């Protein structure tokens, strides 16, 4: 399941977290998002309805390649449209148009618009000369679009009046928490990184964000997948229960860790100072004290 990186970044900015544990959290959260989007894209490709008019239905692998190709073609078209443009407003308009085109084409083909858009963004990140302008344009609209996504999700949500959704939510949250914390601890122990990362850094990965809501919305409108309403309700409840506390989860990992590092640094500095003082106080062979102790008059 995906992990939100917003809580990790918030805790890192607020508490000044740096070092290997912050880098590990960023890499792990980003990898989780990548795996979640790709897994859902492959799921839609695998459950794609067969076309009765074609002589040979496409395989799930071919549908997955088509999803990736939509994003790649969108990236190529973006380069043709934008050229060497550096103004952020025009870059944003072109970027928004291509995202709508890519996601619309994927939705029309009953594929994952998130997976196609992800590969579209990956192509821009690795080939575009306007990385700074694209980043600035996306940062301007990140929060407004997230709030719009929450509004659409709330308007679409239809929880059951029979409370049958409570059990899947509880089971999902319990299993996910155990898997995140236990899996991170096992991986840390197997890689002998326990002194560096600590045993409980998986708590910072409990938060979920907008990607999960977008995946759940996409899942809800698929008529070939099982239990769409239950899955959507579980995802919404999970986000509501974990996203608001994701910054606190990350801070509980970063703050004690940074305190231990600071205490260790202070102890090392004190030990070094004591060793230097002892070395300077020890008499040398050529000192006046040694000469006085070895002279006949003494």
What does this structure look like?
The protein has helices spanning 6-15, 20-46, 60-82, 88-108, 113-127, 131-156, 166-190, 194-197, 210-220, 228-242, 246-281, 288-294. The chain is mostly helical and 298 residues long. The longest helix is centred in the last third of the chain and has 36 residues, at 246-281. It is globular, with a radius of gyration of 28 Å.
Keywords:
globular, 298 residues, mainly alpha
SSE blueprint and pairings:
Blueprint: H1 6-15, H2 20-46, H3 60-82, H4 88-108, H5 113-127, H6 131-156, H7 166-190, H8 194-197, H9 210-220, H10 228-242, H11 246-281, H12 288-294
How do you describe this structure in short?
This protein has 298 residues and is mainly α. The chain is built from twelve helices and no strands.
Specify Rg, calculated over alpha carbons.
28 Å
What oligomeric assembly is this protein in?
single chain
Our estimate of the beta-strand percent is under 5%
Q: What is the general shape?
A: globular
Secondary structure tally, helices: 12
The stretches of 5 or more residues where confidence is low (pLDDT under 50) are: 287-298
Helicity level, as a percent range? over 70%
Find the count of extended strands (DSSP E, 2+ residues): 0
What does the average pLDDT come to? 80
Structural class: mainly alpha
């Amino acid at each position: 399941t995906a992990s939100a990186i917003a809580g990790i970044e918030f805790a890192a900015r607020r508490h000044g977290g740096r070092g290997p544990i912050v880098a590990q959290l960023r890499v792990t959260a980003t990898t989780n998002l990548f795996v979640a989007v790709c897994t859902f894209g492959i799921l839609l490709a695998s459950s794609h309805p067969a076309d009765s008019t074609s002589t040979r239905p496409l395989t799930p692998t071919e549908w997955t390649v088509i999803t990736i190709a939509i994003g790649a073609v969108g990236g190529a078209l973006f380069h043709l449209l934008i050229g060497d443009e550096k103004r952020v407003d025009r870059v944003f308009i072109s970027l928004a148009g291509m995202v709508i085109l890519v996601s619309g084409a994927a939705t029309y083909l009953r594929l994952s618009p998130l997976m196609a858009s992800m590969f579209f963004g990956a192509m821009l990140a690795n080939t575009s000369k306007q990385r700074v302008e694209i980043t600035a344009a996306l940062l301007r609209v990140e929060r407004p679009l997230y709030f719009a996504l929450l509004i659409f999700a709330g308007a679409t949500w239809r929880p059951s009046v029979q409370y049958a959704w409570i059990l899947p939510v509880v089971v999902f949250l319990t299993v996910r928490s155990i898997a995140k914390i236990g899996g991170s601890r096992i991986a840390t122990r197997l890689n002998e990184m326990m002194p560096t990362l600590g045993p409980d850094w998986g708590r910072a990965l409990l938060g979920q964000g907008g990607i999960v809501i977008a995946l759940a919305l996409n899942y809800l409108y698929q008529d070939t997948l099982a239990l769409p309403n239950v899955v959507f309700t579980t995802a919404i409840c999970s986000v509501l229960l974990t996203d608001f506390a994701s910054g606190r989860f990350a801070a509980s990992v970063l703050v004690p860790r940074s305190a231990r590092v600071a205490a260790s640094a202070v102890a090392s500095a004190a030990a070094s100072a004591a060793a230097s003082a002892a070395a300077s106080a020890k008499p040398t062979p050529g000192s006046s004290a040694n000469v006085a102790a070895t002279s006949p008059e003494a």
